[in-house]
C-alpha cells in the first residue's frame, strides 16, 4: 500500500512536539489531546513551563543542543509523530548587521535543529510503522517582507527544501513528511505587530486534520493559499508590505 493510501492516524499514536511550552507548540499539544493521542512528549527548553495534563510528558529539549537530542532519543523510542515546531525570528532586514550577528542562532534553531531531530528519529519512526513528521514552515518561506525578517525567511525556505528532500527519502520507510505553512499567528512571535493573525489552536487543529488526510503541503490560511497560488506569477518579486 502506498503512503498516500494509508495516511497517518493520530488516535492512539505517540507524539513529540518541540517548543511545546507556548504559542503554536502548546496549541499542538491541546489539539493532539483532543484528537485522541495516546501520549505526547511536550518538549521545551524549560520543561517546567509545559502545562501539565494527563498523557503529557514534559521533556527537556533545546533543539540546538545535540546532547538534549540524544537524551530525547533514548527516552522517546515509542513515537510515531514528530512535530518540528520550535522556531525563532529576528525581524532585522538583510542589510542590518544584526541579521548576520544573529544568523547562527536562527539557522541552528530553524534548520539544523529540525534536521538533527529528523536524522535521529527517522529509525524510530521506521521501527514504529512509518509514522509522520510535520515541519512548521511559514508563508514567509515563499515571500520576503520588504525590510522584514530576511534571515527568518531564508531559514524557512531552507527547511522547505530539506522537507521536500526528506519526503522523498523517507517515503520508502512509509514515513509521511508534511509541511505546515501559515502566515501570521497570534503568539509571542508577532506580539506588538499589526498583522492579520490566525488563532494558534485553530491552525493546529486544521494542520492535524490535514495531516491525517495525507496532505503533505498544508496551507492553513487564506493569505498563504493566495501566495502559494501566485508563486508561478512571481509574487515574491513584489511582495506585500509589512503591516
Ligand atoms: N507566529 C507566527 O506568526 C508564525 C507564522 C508562521 C510560522 N510560525 C512558526 O511557528 C512555530 C512556532 O512559533 P510561535 O508563533 O508559537 O512562536 P513563539 O510563541 O515565539 O514560540 C516559539 C517556541 O519555540 C521555542 N524555541 C525557541 N528556540 C528553541 C530551541 N532552541 N529549542 C527548543 N525550543 C525552542 C520557544 O521556547 P522558549 O519558550 O524556551 O523560548 C517556544 O516554545 C515556529 O516555527 C514559527 O516559525 C509562526
Oligomer class: single chain
Order of helices and strands: EHEEHEHHEHEHEH
* Helical/strand content category: alpha/beta
- Helical residue percent band: 25-40%
Strand segment count: 7
Q: Name the poorly predicted regions.
A: none
Helix segment count?
7
Anisotropy-based shape: globular
Please tell me the overall pLDDT.
95
* Biggest sheet layout: 7 strands, parallel
Percent in strands? 5-15%
Compute the separation of the termini in Å: 47 Å
| Small-molecule components bound | NADP nicotinamide-adenine-dinucleotide phosphate
Radius of gyration computed on alpha carbons: 17 Å
The neighbouring-strand order within the major sheet is 3-2-1-4-5-6-7
Task: Give keywords.
single chain, 243 residues, alpha/beta, seven-stranded parallel beta sheet, binds NADP nicotinamide-adenine-dinucleotide phosphate
Structural description of this entry:
The chain is of the alpha/beta class. 39% of the residues lie in helices and 14% in strands. The chain contains 7 helices and 7 strands. The protein has helices spanning 23-34, 66-75, 97-101, 103-127, 150-171, 200-212, 222-229; strands at residues 14-17, 39-44, 56-60, 81-84, 132-136, 176-181, 217-219. A 7-stranded parallel beta sheet has the order 3-2-1-4-5-6-7, sandwiched between helices. β1 (14-17), α1 and β2 (39-44) form a beta-alpha-beta unit. α1 packs across α6 (200-212), α2 (66-75) runs parallel beside α4 (103-127) and α4 (103-127) runs parallel beside α5. The radius of gyration is 17 Å and the shape is globular. It starts with 13 loop residues before the first strand and ends in a 14-residue tail after the last helix. The protein binds NADP nicotinamide-adenine-dinucleotide phosphate.
